[in-house]
Amino acid sequence: MTAVGCTAAQIATEMRVRFRLRPREAWRHALGWTLQETAERLSCLPGQAIAADASLVGKWEKWPGPSGRRPSLHVLVALASVYGCDVEELLDIDDRRAVPDTDLRVLQRDAPEQTQTTPRQPAVVEPEPDRVLAAAAESATWAQWAESSNVGDIALEQLFADVQTLARDYLTADPLLLFRRTRDLRDRVFRLLQGHQPPRQSADLYVSAGYLCGLLAWMSSDLGNLRAADTHGRTAWMCAENAGHDGLRAWVCSTRSKVALWDGRLKDAVGHARRGALVPVDGTVGALLAYQEADAWSMLGARAEAEGALRRAVHARDLMAGVDDIGGLFSCPQARQENYAAAVHLRIGQPQAALRETQSALGLLSTQRVRAYGTEAQIRIGQAAALLACGEPEGVMEALLPVLAMPAERRTGPVTQRMSELAAVMARGASADAGAMISARRLLGEWCADSAPRHAALSSEGGSD
What we know:
By secondary structure, this protein is mainly alpha-helical. It contains 23 helices and no strands. Among the domains are: about 140 residues, no CATH class; about 180 residues, Alpha Horseshoe (Serine Threonine Protein Phosphatase 5, Tetratricopeptide repeat). The protein is about 70% helix and about 0% strand. The chain is elongated.
């Protein structure tokens, strides 16, 4: 800029805009001085010498930041003198908010106090046309910065596709491995958000970040860490709010309702489900939220409220339009809906309805190319519980055989908890003391003890995660 005839004022302005420097630091760099050189010039200033060192000059530049120190009016006048500028050019809006009112009045050009301050060398004043051109250059420089981005549209599209892949893979893959992949992608999106991009691209990044945090919340819950799940859920909600994305808002509410239910905060689970239901959105999330509300009400023993929520779920399913943006875990096909309905009907004393729903759900799963092992396991456990409640204990273990064959790393928290609940029901039944029933309960207990949450805890203790 010096080579093409730019003034120090123009260079300082460019540095403030391009590198976001504080005004006093920008002026020093525009002149090519170090902190120590500036301190020496202040110390040698005729008639108003200031005892300064490099550290103190640096603190004056950083003020009003937390590591800065407020320069007195005398110091500001001295700095303006050595830099050859007006005092006003060393202050921005943050400085003016922090400067005492008495100093601000002195700094007004037409204030009488201005003539009483210590005299300094005349400032170099730009002719008016140069000021106009400088302002235009500032606007052009800022526009160039605002238009720049650390991420492109193709990269954003790929990130969203990666989120969809993770949500689908979680239905069939090892939850601990998927957790690590999801965390890595979330970290990448967070790093991009810490950079610079236009608002539209920032919003897209927040959407991806929100869904990834939602996935981590769901996974953390399945792996037995409900406190971590709640933290991810709150961050996901913040991302949804920053993006202004209704679809993400609804799915985050569903995720937080799920976490609250398994954490025993049943009224919170109802509240999150109802909050999500207020968001106008396409896809299956509306039905899912109603089923989740019914699930929580049934655990609270509120039969009427649970039945009302079930009716709203069926209504939402009948009115469903559009498709789910993400799919996989962030989708609620009919088999998953039947699983929720069966669990509710079991709790409110309608085992025949629950048995029909589990049979319907298993029939639907048999036609699907991708079968969510967690959903299928819960459906089969629900079928076993319905058979027991309907007085058909001989079919219980047959219904559970595919579940008992699941590898330990796929036995997530919700699945093992439902199995534990079934074992507790078996212990209260009429044939609880029978040898076969005692053996079955022992088998279920051993199965629950070797689970995905236990493997996750062991992995964490070993430092591999």
